[in-house]
């Protein structure tokens, strides 16, 4: 049995996949959360970083994606060549910005308790001192997540009028 997706779901998958890939690559190159070798060897900092990254960067965004994916599949979202259609395309595209929010929340967790996730040496090498204020990461992260929920509600309302 083949799965059939709506145009809105296909667009959402495409843009989410791009954002998700970019976020995972950025996190990997910046914070080294996937140090599975050290985690396997029992290094507590690496284990904690790995677990927190799985929860905040994989599980929560994929759960969020699945919920949005199902919701937009249940509504008839039109992509006609009208102002309404263009607005719908933009809103569907913006729906996947929640992934940036989870990235910022992950950063907030790291900066909230750097001793939990990094050794002193790693903190000097990885964490940038001027980026260490937790609120500068947490508040925008929450705003990204909340804004995408509001955009979903607008998209649904816009297409059911």
Question: How would you describe what is shown here?
Answer:
The protein has 161 residues and is mainly α. The chain has one domain. It has 8 helices and no strands. The chain has helices at 7-31, 36-40, 44-74, 83-94, 98-112, 114-117, 120-126, 135-160. The model has no long low-confidence stretch (mean pLDDT 89).
Short description:
The chain contains eight helices and no strands. With 161 residues, it is an all-alpha fold. It is elongated.
Low-pLDDT runs of 5+ residues are: none
Number of domains: 1
Q: What percent of the residues sit in helical stretches (DSSP H or I)? A: over 70%
Overall pLDDT, averaged?
89
Sheet bearing the most strands, described?
none
Helix segment tally: 8
Oligomeric composition of the shown chains: single chain
Write down the Rg: 18 Å
Topology as H/E string?
Answer: HHHHHHHH
Strand count: 0
Percent strand: under 5%
Question: What best-fitting shape do the alpha-carbon axes yield?
Answer: elongated
SSE blueprint and pairings:
Elements: H1 7-31, H2 36-40, H3 44-74, H4 83-94, H5 98-112, H6 114-117, H7 120-126, H8 135-160
Helix pairs in contact: 1-3, 1-4, 3-5, 4-8, 5-8
Structural descriptors:
single chain, 161 residues, mainly alpha, 8 helices, 78% helix, elongated
